[in-house]
C-alpha cells in the first residue's frame, strides 16, 4: 500500500495582521490571506471600516443560506465588481426576478437528457487534446494548465456553438479570455469600498479592452446563430437550445444582448472551472501511481478513444472518484459571497442587514471537524459511509440550492471522461522542483503552473515519439 499523500495547500497568514496587510494579501491570493483557524472554526467574524463579514462553516448555516432561505441572502455585488466588464448582467451576477427569469430559460439546456447529446462533442475535444499532447510528449516537462484550459475551451465551443477550438472566432475568443484573466484580478476597489453605482470602478485599460474584444466576438457568434435559427439551418446545440427557449412565464426569450452576457459566463465558468479541476486531477494522479493505474485500467472501456457512448461514463468509477476528490481538495470557486437582506442571528451572533456572508468551499472541504484526515488525497473516501456523510454536510463545489451551477452535471461528465482519455493515453509523472502552489484568482490554479511529465503508454522508454497524426 502506498504512503498517504497530502498534496500542497497554501500557507495561511498569521491570525492577526493589519487591515492594510490583509487587503494586500487578499488582493494577491484569497486563500493564503486567511488564518489557519478557519479550518476548525464553525464561524468567524471579520470587521473592516467599510463592512463586516461572517465566514460560515457550520453546515446548518450553509444549508440555511443556500437552501432554506436563499432569497434572504442574495449574491453580494462586491465580488461581482471585478467581473462586470466582461459578464455584464449575466446569471452569475444577478439576483431576484432577473435571475429567476434567466434560470428559467437556461435550465432546460442543461437537463440530464441534453448530456447525451453533448457527449460526442466532449469525446471529440478529448481526442484532439490527446493528439496535441502526443506531439509534445517527448519527456520534456510541460505545464499542464494551459493544456487543460485548451481542451476545456474546446469542449465549450463544440457543445455551445458546434465549433472546434481551431475555428478562427473560437480561437480568438480563447486567446482574449487568457489575456483578460491575466489583466483582471478578481477583486478591485469596489470589492472593499461601498461605492455608489455612478462612481467609476477603476478597471484597468487592459481589462476594459479585453472585455470589449471578447464581447464583440461573442456578439458576432450570437448574431450569426440568430440568423441560422431564423433560416432553419442552426445546429441542435446548447446555443440554439437556449436562444429558442422562451421564459415559460412570459413567453419571451433572450435577446442578442442578453445572450452575450450568458455566453460570457458559460465560457468563463464552463472552461475555467473545468480546466482547474482537470489539471489538479492529473497532478494528484501523478502523485499516486496506484490510483493512476486504476483509472487507466478502467479507461480501457473507451477502446481506442473513439467510443462516444454516454453509458460508458458509468464504468469510469475510479476516474469519477479522483475527479470528485480533486474538486474537494481544490474547489475551482473557493469562496462565495452573499449579503444579508435583513437582521438575523448566526450562532448567537447578530448579523445585520448588509453584512457579508462568506461560504468557503475551500475551508468547508478541508474542515477538520467534518472530514476524516481532510488534507489527505483519498478517492476511496467516496465509497465509505463516513465520506458520504461528510459530503452531504460539507461538499459544495458547484454551490447548492436554487443557485447550484446549472452545468454541474455537464462538468461531472466532462471531467471524468477527459481524465480517463488522458490517463489511458499517457503515464503521468511529477517534475522534481516544480511543486505547485495553490492560489485563487478567478479559480484555484497554481501560482507557478502544474508541471508534469507525460509518457505515451504505447511506447517503451527510448522509443521515438509517435507523430500526432498516428492514432490507434
Order of helices and strands: HEEHHHHHEHHHHHHHHEEEEHHHEEEE
Span of the ends, CA to CA: 33 Å
C-alpha Rg, in Å?
22 Å
Strand proportion, as a percent range, falls in 5-15%
Low-confidence runs? 461-472
Query: Given the structure, what is the number of helices?
Result: 17
- Helical proportion, percent range: 40-55%
Apparent shape: globular
Q: What profile does the largest beta sheet have?
A: 4 strands, mixed
> What is the strand arrangement across the widest sheet?
1-2-7-4
How many β-strand stretches? Answer: 11
Mean pLDDT across the residues is: 87
Q: Which structural class fits the helix and strand makeup?
A: alpha+beta
Provide an overview of this structure.
With 472 residues, the protein is an alpha+beta fold. The protein is built from 17 helices and eleven strands. The chain has a four-stranded mixed beta sheet with strand order 1-2-7-4. Strands 3-11-8 form a three-stranded antiparallel beta sheet. A two-stranded antiparallel sheet has the order 5-6. It is globular and about 60 Å long.
Amino acid at each position: 500500500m502506498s504512503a498517504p499523500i497530502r498534496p500542497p495547500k497554501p500557507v495561511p497568514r498569521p491570525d492577526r495582521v493589519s487591515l492594510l496587510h490583509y487587503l494586500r494579501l487578499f488582493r494577491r491570493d484569497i486563500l493564503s490571506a486567511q488564518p489557519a483557524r478557519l479550518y476548525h472554526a464553525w464561524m468567524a467574524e471579520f470587521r473592516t471600516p467599510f463592512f463586516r463579514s461572517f465566514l460560515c462553516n457550520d453546515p446548518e448555516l450553509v444549508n440555511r443560506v443556500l437552501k432554506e432561505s436563499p432569497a434572504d441572502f442574495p449574491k453580494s455585488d462586491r465580488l461581482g465588481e471585478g467581473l462586470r466588464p466582461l459578464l455584464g448582467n449575466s446569471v452569475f451576477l444577478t439576483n431576484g426576478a432577473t435571475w429567476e427569469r434567466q434560470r428559467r430559460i437556461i435550465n432546460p439546456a442543461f437537463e440530464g437528457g441534453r448530456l447525451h447529446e453533448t457527449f460526442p462533442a466532449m469525446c471529440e475535444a478529448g481526442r484532439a487534446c490527446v493528439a496535441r499532447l502526443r506531439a509534445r510528449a517527448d519527456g520534456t516537462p510541460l505545464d499542464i494548465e494551459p493544456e487543460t484550459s485548451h481542451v476545456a475551451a474546446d469542449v465549450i465551443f463544440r457543445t455551445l456553438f458546434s465549433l472546434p477550438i481551431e475555428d478562427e472566432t473560437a480561437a480568438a475568443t480563447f486567446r482574449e479570455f487568457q489575456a483578460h484573466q491575466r489583466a483582471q484580478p478578481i477583486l478591485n476597489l469596489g470589492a472593499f469600498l461601498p461605492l455608489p453605482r455612478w462612481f467609476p470602478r477603476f478597471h484597468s485599460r487592459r481589462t476594459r479592452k479585453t472585455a470589449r474584444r471578447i464581447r464583440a466576438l461573442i456578439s458576432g457568434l450570437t448574431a450569426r446563430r440568430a440568423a441560422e435559427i431564423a433560416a432553419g439551418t442552426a445546429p441542435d446545440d446548447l446555443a440554439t437550445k437556449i436562444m429558442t427557449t422562451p421564459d415559460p412565464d412570459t413567453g419571451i426569450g433572450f435577446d442578442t444582448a442578453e445572450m452575450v452576457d450568458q455566453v460570457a459566463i458559460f465560457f468563463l465558468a464552463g472552461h475555467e472551472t473545468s480546466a482547474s479541476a482537470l489539471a489538479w486531477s492529473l497532478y494528484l494522479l501523478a502523485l499516486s501511481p496506484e490510483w493512476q493505474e486504476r483509472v487507466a485500467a478502467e479507461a480501457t472501456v473507451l477502446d481506442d478513444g473513439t467510443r462516444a457512448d454516454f453509458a460508458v461514463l458509468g464504468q469510469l468509477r475510479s476516474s469519477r472518484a479522483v475527479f470528485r476528490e480533486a474538486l474537494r481538495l481544490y474547489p475551482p470557486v473557493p469562496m462565495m459571497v452573499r449579503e444579508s437582506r435583513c437582521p438575523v442571528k448566526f450562532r448567537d451572533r447578530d448579523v445585520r442587514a448588509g453584512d457579508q456572508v462568506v461560504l468557503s468551499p475551500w475551508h468547508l472541504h478541508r474542515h477538520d471537524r467534518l472530514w476524516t484526515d481532510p488534507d489527505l488525497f483519498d478517492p476511496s473516501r467516496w465509497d465509505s459511509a463516513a465520506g458520504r456523510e461528510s459530503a452531504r454536510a460539507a461538499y459544495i463545489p458547484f454551490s447548492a440550492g436554487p443557485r447550484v451551477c446549472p452545468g454541474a452535471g455537464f462538468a461531472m461528465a466532462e471531467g471524468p471522461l477527459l481524465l480517463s482519455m488522458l490517463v489511458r493515453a499517457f503515464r503521468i509523472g511529477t517534475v522534481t522542483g516544480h511543486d505547485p502552489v495553490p492560489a485563487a484568482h478567478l479559480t484555484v490554479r497554481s501560482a507557478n503552473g502544474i508541471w508534469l511529465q507525460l509518457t505515451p503508454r504505447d511506447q517503451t522508454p527510448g522509443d521515438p515519439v509517435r507523430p500526432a497524426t498516428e492514432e490507434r
